[in-house]
Write a structure and sequence with these properties.
538 residues, alpha/beta, nine-stranded mixed beta sheet, five-stranded parallel beta sheet, 17 helices, globular, binds ligand J2J
């Protein structure tokens, strides 16, 4: 009987068959992968988190204990569990414990607040929510209390001081045998950067994700001597799988978790742990290159700096090797699947000027014009893709899926790219209604909907504006009902509604009308252009 989770579109059987036959999908699960690594690399250090060091054997044992603890709480296979943790070893113990149980983590980011968390809990009908007590000056227990007031959650599980909730530490117990999940079933949900009113959930299977993790580890030449620094939020797809912490564990290496990506936290860790590879978004890469000038820390162990999540300018790309003494690897990926890498032995030219090429020979890439016709090689168009680790649809989103995917299963990435003669992709822009704020994705419609809930807002249009540091920031154009309210009353309204800080508009402009396109839609292009002109008129 097919016991897979309903609401998760999957690959047609002929494709699944092909991906198995080609050896991409190997019927492995995350739980078993960790067990095998513990058998092979038992005494090696798997995770370093603050003063804690966990060997593979310890990690494997703790994951078993925790899986049994989750089960004793009543968490079952296919139950959804919203996980919102900073970069601490408990994050990975929770992940692998849920994987072993066949329960499904929903990966929230530490920056998410009540609006996002409430939505994830409600939409996925989550049974539990896992948090840290405090992180970055914020008390997540307070957030849990407000979320719990509006959605039905059976458990709030806390790393650290649990207050009124269940302490994670109390759940480690004598392990019992558990039934293994199916490799072709969903293992967890990643979040989409999105361009719609509410975030979309991305169902990833053991088979497909493990393929991308294994192939990424190979491309990045990871082995048991590799030391990966996880400086970006561990729940994000990039530091999780490209090759990230999972790829490092796959290779038997050591993953070092940084609580903050700033040079004053990361540089001493690189020096102390002899980090060989790490991943950053472009603004952080810039900050690191500046900070490295002081030469206060020994960064000589670093071989590879991966940069992705947003476009890295060629000028910045060219500075990486001189500033940090390591190879740059550009990474153009997405939580929906497709990941492109420049290869470590590529020419400087390719490394600096392209965003890489796909992982897999069976990643099908189409670049099409507005009419859906393939463009000539070298021309810019919209990127569509299909392959062994690219989803065929979002979770419980039938209507949206019909728009976001072609009838034959290609995912419309919303990215404008061109392909070089040798098959490398260059990101030229974006066709989706999204702002990429230094790697943090903001869906315009989501913010517009929140603004429209304000009694003094008649209409709202959110667009990107160029920014020297973040690449882009957000500007909200607002038509007020009557006299415009102070800008701060709008931004604090959004904060009170529980929006993550990176989604709060950086600038608000009140206008009387919006420019329209020929067919009468709001012209976001004209709004963006108005922003780069010296003065914006009211
Ligand atoms: C330009 N735009 C980029 C790049 C992503 C590895 C790396 C990144 C992500 C990620 C990821 C870009 N240049 N180098 O999941 O595994 C923009 C594109 C893309 C969107 C996906 C990974 N790298 N982007 O960023 O799901 O617009 O994944 O469609 O957060 O980020 O965002 P996300």
């Amino acid at each position: 009987a097919d016991t897979r989770l309903p609401g998760c579109p999957t690959w047609p059987e002929d494709f699944a068959e092909r991906y198995r036959r080609a050896g991409y999908w190997r019927g492995e699960t995350f739980g078993r992968m960790l067990r095998e690594r513990a058998e092979r690399h038992g005494d090696r250090v798997a995770l370093v988190s603050g003063e804690d060091r966990r060997t593979y054997r310890e990690l494997d044992a703790r994951v078993d204990q925790l899986a049994s603890g989750f089960k004793a709480l009543g968490i079952r296979a296919r139950d959804r569990v919203v996980v919102q943790l900073p970069n601490v070893a408990a994050f990975h113990e929770v992940c692998f414990a849920l994987f072993r149980l066949g329960a499904l983590p929903v990966f929230a980011l530490p920056a998410h607040r009540g609006a996002e968390i409430g939505y994830f809990c409600e939409f996925t009908e989550a049974v539990a929510y896992v948090i840290a007590d405090r992180h970055g000056g914020f008390d997540y227990r307070t957030l849990a209390t407000s979320v719990k007031a509006t959605v039905s959650l059976q458990h709030v599980i806390v790393v650290g001081d649990a207050g009124p909730y269940t302490s994670l530490e109390s759940l480690y117990r004598t392990p019992e045998a558990l039934e293994e999940p199916r490799p072709d079933d969903v293992a967890f949900f990643q979040l989409s950067g999105g361009s719609t009113g509410v975030p979309k959930l991305i169902p990833r299977t053991h088979d497909d994700y493990l393929y991308s993790v294994r192939a990424s580890a190979e491309i990045c030449q990871l082995d048991a001597s590799s030391v990966y620094l996880c400086a970006l939020p561990a729940a994000h797809n990039f530091p999780m799988s490209s090759p990230g912490v999972f790829g490092t564990l796959y290779a038997g290496g050591t993953a070092v978790l940084a609580l903050h990506p700033s040079p004053d936290v990361a540089f001493p860790l690189i020096a102390r742990e002899k980090v060989t590879i790490t991943a950053l978004v472009p603004p952080l890469a810039m900050v690191w290159m500046d900070a490295a000038k002081a030469r206060r820390h020994d960064l000589s162990s670093l071989k590879v700096l991966q940069v992705g999540g947003a476009k890295l300018s060629a000028e910045a790309a060219a500075r990486v090797k001189p500033a940090l003494g390591c190879t740059l690897q550009q990474v153009f990926g997405m939580a929906e699947g497709l990941v492109n890498y420049t290869r470590l032995d590529d020419s400087e030219e390719r490394i600096i000027h392209t965003q890489g090429r796909p992982i897999c020979a069976d990643d099908e890439v189409r670049i099409v014009d507005e009419d859906g016709q393939d463009v000539e090689v070298g021309q810019t168009g919209q990127l569509f893709t299909r392959g062994p680790y690219t989803i065929r649809g979002y979770y419980k989103a039938e209507t949206h899926n019909a728009r976001a995917f072609t009838a034959d299963g290609f995912y419309g990435t919303g990215d404008l790219v061109r392909m070089t003669a040798d098959g490398y992709l260059v990101v030229e822009g974006r066709a989706k209604d999204q702002i990429n704020r230094g790697g943090d994705k903001v869906a315009a419609e989501e913010i517009e909907n929140h603004l429209l809930a304000h009694p003094m807002v008649h209409d709202a249009a959110v667009v990107s504006m160029p920014d020297a540091f973040l690449g882009e920031r957000t500007c909200a154009f607002v038509i007020a009902r009557g006299t415009p309210p102070p800008t701060t009353s709008l931004t604090s309204f959004l904060r009170e509604r529980g929006l993550a800080a990176f989604k709060i508009p950086d600038r608000v402009e009140f206008v009387d009308t919006f420019p329209k396109t020929g067919v009468g839609k709001v012209s976001k292009k004209a709004l963006r252009e108005a922003l780069v002109r010296p003065a914006v008129t009211r």
